[in-house]
Specification:
Layout: H1 2-32, E1 35-41, H2 60-67, E2 70-76, H3 82-91, H4 125-131, E3 135-141, E4 165-169, H5 186-213, H6 220-248, E5 251-253, E6 256-260, H7 267-281, E7 287-292, H8 313-335, E8 342-348, H9 380-383, E9 384-390, E10 399-401, E11 405-406, H10 410-418, H11 434-437, E12 448-453, E13 456-462, E14 471-478, E15 501-511, H12 530-546, H13 557-560, E16 579-580, H14 581-589
Parallel strand pairs: 1-7, 1-8, 2-10, 2-11, 3-4, 3-7
Antiparallel strand pairs: 2-9, 4-5, 5-6, 6-16, 8-9, 12-13, 13-14, 14-15
Helix pairs in contact: 2-8, 5-6, 7-8
């Protein structure tokens, strides 16, 4: 009898135990498969957000994100330029491995109808998460190419790289996209248009004078040929000015152009609404949202609610509008009770563009804080970026981590959280951040990090085991101009080869842990292990370069230049390439 009672008791207890077990399993499954929101600003400096020390720019929502999670103070972009940095972020690999790093002066795509882009054989974290049942979306800037052979193959398009939904721009925000904001092609115009026209003009006047004086008989055909050449150059120039904006600055929804050229009116608000609607559509499904702002790349813009409100002119207005958008997403997660089960990451693709000064002398670039240099170079100001992660259920709030981390680390981190195995047929350079974020490890898994200036290995960072030192050796450094300035103002960005750089033998060595401003290069007199440190770094660089396969160069002239057969235009717009279905849809909804 006692035995029967015992069996009955055990049978009754099994039900709550099983219930508890299944609840634990469900919670564990949720914790290991969070919703993921990856927020990337464009050209935002590490000295811009309040949580990184700015006292005058108002960024309460970015600051709220940091106070509720982890702030990385040595978070590094894999490249100091948009396209290669974003390629590294998406794939977890140095961009040189995929051919997404240039050997020439231009390191980013400037035309939507270029054939270069993120190769089809590259695997993005979006692709991995989509295979695990995640709903995936990219809202905002892509800048990793569009098509390969025909304008409808869309081989580089976000939807061919793992995203279910795309709303945004395929290229980047440029001064040329906003009337009255100048051009990124000023130097090219000077060399290819103004100087040739001046030469032709002087030649024509000289020939005419010699002809009149009887000193030289110049055939009439020569005059007509020179005039024709001048007219041709001028026609091509005016055509470029007229057509560049509609052909390269347009909004897309999936494969369809919805606004050409794009309008800046309430642009950030539109991106925010799209992001919010995607989240609302996926409250019952794990989702990946990449919210890639156009802010704060020039041309700068902001809506009337933010224009003229900051203490830092149009740049500050743009930063504060972006911060507002971040706040809208955070508030929505709270309203939908998704905050605890959502990992949010906030960063910038590279440091602030210090050379961005308008024709009126207004500063249009941000702050890199105490750090030297900026966008397009590998001084700390060019690669040290904001890195904030929040996941209330898992990550302890209010942490600050000083270990070296990379934007490539997001790839293995989110892949593991989603339960996706990492590809085994290629090297993944990123490292899983979760042990560091959860406090299970006190050290970064990166002993060495390699800093590329386009496709050229520029510097190596070494964080030795059992040491607080972080050594950084430069093989070459950019020649700032004017001399003594903090950037390459004569060329607008720093270049990576030839007369634009100074090579160092032995390499320039810094201890970043003691000299984060990179002001005092070490010497054998100030560092007894000088040559020993450089030997270890050189050996690491040699091992690394041996792992680099030969891959097609996505920035070859053939891939980079504009191809008319790849040009996208809105349907039924004729040669004008202009339409605005966004405005039409808005009218219909009213």
């Amino acid at each position: 009898m006692a035995q029967d009672h015992l069996q009955l008791f055990i049978a009754k207890m099994k039900i709550p135990f099983l219930l508890l077990f299944f609840l634990w399993e469900a919670e564990s499954h949720t914790a290991s498969r969070p919703n993921i929101i990856l927020v990337m600003a464009d050209d935002l400096g590490i000295g811009d957000p309040g949580c990184y020390g700015n006292k005058t720019l108002r960024t309460p929502n970015i600051d709220r994100l940091a106070s509720g999670g982890v702030k990385l103070t040595q978070h590094l972009a894999a490249s100091p330029l948009c396209t290669p940095s974003r390629a590294a972020f998406m794939t977890g690999r140095y961009p040189v491995r995929s051919g997404m790093a240039s050997w020439s002066r231009t390191g980013v795509f400037l035309f939507t109808a270029s054939s270069g882009g993120l190769p089809t054989n590259e695997i993005t974290f979006a692709k991995l998460l989509k295979d695990q049942g995640y709903s995936t979306a990219l809202i905002g800037k892509w800048h990793l190419g569009m098509s390969c052979h025909s304008k409808t193959d869309f081989c580089h398009h976000p939807l061919h790289h793992g995203f279910n939904y795309f709303y945004g721009i395929s290229l980047t925000n440029l001064r040329d996209c906003k009337p009255g904001e100048g051009s990124v092609f000023t130097t090219a115009f000077k060399r290819l248009v103004f100087i040739p026209l001046q030469i032709i003009g002087v030649t024509l006047l000289t020939f005419a004078a010699l002809n009149c004086l009887g000193l030289l008989r110049v055939p009439l055909g020569i005059f007509f040929s020179l005039l024709f050449l001048a007219a041709l150059i001028l026609t091509l120039f005016l055509g470029f000015l007229h057509y560049f904006r509609p052909l390269n600055c347009f909004m897309m929804k999936n494969y369809e152009i919805i606004q050409q050229p794009m309008s800046y009116d309430n642009l950030t608000q539109r991106l925010t609404v799209e992001a919010a609607q995607f989240i609302q559509r996926n409250t019952e499904t794990p989702f990946l949202l990449v919210l890639s702002y156009l802010h704060v790349h020039t041309a700068l813009f902001s809506s009337k609610d933010f224009a003229g409100k900051s203490k830092h002119g149009v740049y500050g207005d743009a930063v504060e509008e972006m911060d507002w958008s971040v706040g809208q997403i955070l508030n929505l997660l709270d309203e939908l009770r998704l905050a605890n089960d959502t990992l949010i990451y906030f960063t910038s693709d590279q440091g602030a563009h210090v050379e961005e000064v308008s024709s009126k002398g207004e500063i249009h670039g941000g702050s890199n804080g105490i750090y030297k240099g900026g966008k397009a170079n590998n001084w700390e100001g060019g690669i040290r970026v904001p890195g904030i992660l929040r996941w209330p259920r898992v990550i302890q709030a209010g942490q600050k981590i000083d270990e070296p981390t990379s934007n490539m680390d997001i790839f293995p981190t989110v892949a593991k959280l989603a339960g996706a195995p990492l590809p085994e047929d290629r090297i993944i350079d990123g490292r899983d951040l979760m042990p560091l974020l959860e406090g299970k490890s006190q050290r970064s898994d990166h002993e060495f990090l390699f800093h590329y200036c386009n496709a050229y290995l520029n510097a190596v960072r070494w964080h030795p085991q059992n040491s607080t030192s972080i050594w950084k050796a430069f093989f070459f450094t950019p020649n700032f101009n004017p001399v003594g300035s903090n950037g390459c103002f004569a060329t607008h960005v720093c270049f990576c080869f030839g007369g634009y750089v100074t090579h160092h033998d032995p390499p320039l060595l810094f201890d970043i842990s003691k000299d984060p401003r990179e002001r005092n290069p070490l010497t054998p007199a100030t560092e007894p292990r000088f040559y020993e440190i450089l030997k270890v770094i050189q050996e690491a660089a040699d091992r690394h370069t041996q792992t680099l396969p030969e891959v097609p160069n996505q920035f070859s002239w053939d891939n980079f230049l504009w191809k008319p057969w790849l040009q996208l235009c809105c349907p039924s717009s004729g040669l004008s390439c202009q339409c605005d279905t966004e405005k039409q849809d808005k009218r219909l909804s009213h």
